[in-house]
Amino acid sequence: MVPELVHQVPELVHMLRELVHQLPELVHMVQELVHQVPGLVYQVPELVHMVPELVQHVPELVHQVPELVHQVPELVHMVPELVHQVPGLVHMVPELVHQVPELVHQVPELVHQVPELVH
Asked: Rounded to whole angstroms, how far apart are CA atoms 115 and 20?
């Protein structure tokens, strides 16, 4: 037992040195936390004040759950249809891009018509 402990001494010494080395950083962290406590304590009444308002919304939220659950199958059912439409939409992109210059070209004409439309 003793030889085993003696064997571990260098490792323990190394660990102690590491801890001692880290102490200033730990002390600094504790000081930071202590520094933040007054701010947190200051917020407590505000948070406590909000609780009744939050609790008030709970029944409303609970009431909505069955409706939301009811909609899930419908939403799931729509996914394949949406996925099915993606290639068609992707296919339309080049056509839309192709139309952009023509639309840009029409802008001055449209801007020119604005005063007439306003009257």
From this structure: 79
For 119, which DSSP code?
-
Is 0.85 surpassed by the pTM of this model? no
Pull the structure tokens for residue 70. 């009811």
Distance CA 79, CA 72 (A): 11
- Structure tokens that stand for 91 in this block: 């296919």
Return the closest-CA partner of residue 5 out of 13, 118, 45: 13
- What is the CB-side half-sphere exposure of residue 5 using CA atoms within 13 A? 2
Amino acid in position 70: H
Mind listing the pLDDT tens digit of every residue in the chain (119 residues)? Answer: 677 777 888 888 888 888 888 888 888 898 888 888 888 888 888 888 899 988 998 999 999 999 989 899 888 888 888 888 888 888 888 888 888 888 888 888 888 888 877 76
| DSSP codes, 102-118 | HHHHHHHHHHHHHHHHH
Question: What is the rounded radius of gyration, in angstroms, for the C-alpha atoms of the chain?
Answer: 34
